[in-house]
Write a structure and sequence with these properties.
2 copies of one chain form a homodimer. Chain A has helices at about 15-20, 25-35, 50-65, 70-80, 90-130. By secondary structure, chain A is an all-alpha fold. The first copy, chain A, has one domain: Multidrug-efflux Transporter Regulator, Chain: A, Domain 2, CATH 1.10.1660.10. Chain A starts with 13 loop residues before the first helix and ends with a helix. Chain B binds a DNA duplex (30 and 30 nucleotides) through helix 2.
DNA sequence: GTTTGCGGTGGAGTGCACTCCAACTCCTAC
DNA sequence: GTAGGAGTTGGAGTGCACTCCACCGCAAAC
């Protein structure tokens, strides 16, 4: 008899979140302390319980991180987010700037990738000429 | 009367190399100390004089760095290079592995870039609905 | 009722890649 | 001859993003 789930609904423990995100529990606590993640719900015994909304936000944070955004900039973005709808335009501006930097970075990597290809070709030719 | 250039030929001072590469003089010395750059020629008064071959190597090092290779791996590559022709196959292997990692990284950035695009679209729609 | 295990906190420590500094040495120009 | 400027060395310091640690609390398992 699965009764209607009570209030806690579907929440995850810190180690479960760690497993799903690849972050360590220490890093999750560090991010929260740093204000990247707003204080997450607690169980009666004071343990963190991550809800779906927390997970979505963490996933997005990781996109920002993986595309090279610094902790300082993520803090700024998270703070804007806590400021609510009034900050939408500012957040959009941040994301657009970040996208520009990202595209520049991808382009730079592709250019360097071709230089790397050339170097590899060079070495392959050296090895062919036994 | 520009007489035939003597032995030093076309060499650059450390600040000139810094300007051309974007590295600081401190970083150039640090790289040399770390073995990334093999001891560069010196003037009679003990000052570094970078030759064309040094510049080519530094340019390539920067490609490796900019594509995410760690100092430790660049040290390994530089050491192989000092080992001469016998290490060609090893160096080729390193570069191929590095290229695989680079392509994975570029791909990951492109995927995250699309997620970023979606988020930007989302914010744009929020702002349109005045 | 105590061992086991997960989680909490504050704060110290780590690894990487630089970056800065003090003290000294050379030229070059005045 | 001395002041200025560029460069030398060894070693200390910095900023970032974690990562580790000691010590404590709670709850289920035995």
């Amino acid at each position: 008899m699965t009764s209607a789930t009570p209030l806690p609904a579907e929440t995850l423990s810190i180690t479960e979140v760690a497993e799903r995100t690849g972050l360590s529990p220490d890093t999750l606590r560090y991010y929260e302390k740093a204000g990247l993640i707003s204080p997450v719900g607690r169980s009666t015994s004071g343990r963190r319980r991550y809800a779906a909304a927390d997970m979505n936000w963490i996933d997005f944070l990781l996109r920002l991180r993986d595309t090279g955004m610094s902790i300082a900039d993520m803090q700024r973005f998270a703070e804007l987010r806590r400021g609510g709808a009034a900050t939408t335009a500012d957040r959009l501006a941040m994301l657009r700037e970040h996208r520009v930097r990202l595209h520049r970075r991808i382009h730079g990597l592709q250019v360097s990738g071709r230089a790397l290809d050339d170097k590899i070709d060079h070495y392959e030719r050296l090895l062919e000429d036994t």
